[in-house]
Amino acid sequence: MSSLIEVKNVSKYYRMGEEKIVALENISLTMEKGKFYCLLGTSGSGKSTLLNLLAGLEKPSRGQIIIKNTQIGKMSESKLAKFRQNNIGFVFQSYNLMPMLTALENVSIPLTFKGVRRKVRDQRASNLLKAVGLEGRLNHRPNQMSGGQQQRVSIARAFIASPEIVFADEPTGNLDTKTTQEVMDLITFMARKNNQTLVIVTHDIEIAHYADQIIYIRDGNIEKIEDTTENKEAL
Ligand code: ADP
Ligand code: MG
């Protein structure tokens, strides 16, 4: 059986005037359904570039990214947008909530795109906001909430359409230690409960240890891949 995500010989180059910047060089890996992966590396190593390629936000310069047996780099923009709506949730470091919308409205956005009717959307969004501990904040706008609360709203938004895959780029990068732990517990709980695949980017080894597999990224290459599940079972 083929893997949920297959990355085959992927490179990503950027051109800055005369200079060619190598963000990723010949990356290959596979990811399985229901597992939790971490892309770990220092700043500038290529983690966000790889995550953006996996999520279809950017296209590789070379190589293939295959998700659910479909090469996403080959899709038209409209097909890719549909594919993303149906299969992918994304959590950003800076939350990326719509400032004019309430928590409830922000969480509902993916369902709006899918044509779910208002009453059902509101019901599901409010249930999910309850599940992330924000039942008292449904009508708050982003600037009326703390960073941790905003990130919980953005997590609820990433999960609301039940995507098979959730990507998160340094989701706790702007949070304090205690809130980081709460947010990581929340993301992992939600993904495990629904057997979703989770891919998190971080530079923090502590966060990486929540994952089943740590993929070490260095200078645009995979340095090593470490399975953490065996150690966990031994505990
Ligand atoms: P990380 O997320 O690990 O900090 P990135 O994937 O953001 O690293 O960046 C990897 C490398 O690619 C860096 O050297 C960065 O400067 C470069 N890079 C990323 N995005 C662009 C871009 N849009 N244009 C030019 N260079 C970029
Ligand atoms: Mg980054």
Nutshell version of this structure?
The protein is α/β, with parallel strands linked by helices and 235 residues long. It has helices spanning 47-54, 77-87, 103-113, 118-131, 147-159, 177-193, 205-208, 229-234, and strands at 5-16, 19-31, 36-40, 62-67, 70-71, 88-91, 165-169, 197-202, 213-218, 221-227.
The CATH first-level class comes to Alpha Beta
In the CATH hierarchy, the architecture is 3-Layer(aba) Sandwich
Work out the radius of gyration: 18 Å
Structural class assignment: alpha/beta
**C-alpha termini separation:** 31 Å
Instruction: Give the number of DSSP strands.
Output: 10
- What's the number of domains? 1
Could you tell me the mean pLDDT? 94
- Which regions contain 5 or more consecutive residues with pLDDT less than 50? none
CATH topology: Rossmann fold
Q: Approximately what portion of the residues adopt beta-strand conformation?
A: 25-35%
Order of neighbouring strands in the sheet with most strands: 6-7-8-3-9-10
The global form is globular
Looking at this structure, what is the CATH superfamily? P-loop containing nucleotide triphosphate hydrolases
Helicity level:
25-40%
Query: How many individual helices?
Result: 8
- Written as H for each helix and E for each strand, in order along the chain, the element string is EEEHEEHEHHHEHEHEEH
Q: Please give the largest β-sheet.
A: 6 strands, mixed
GO molecular function: ATP binding; ATP hydrolysis activity; transmembrane transporter activity
Pfam family, one: ABC_tran
Domain ABC transporter: 5-235
Keywords: ATP-binding, Nucleotide-binding, Transport
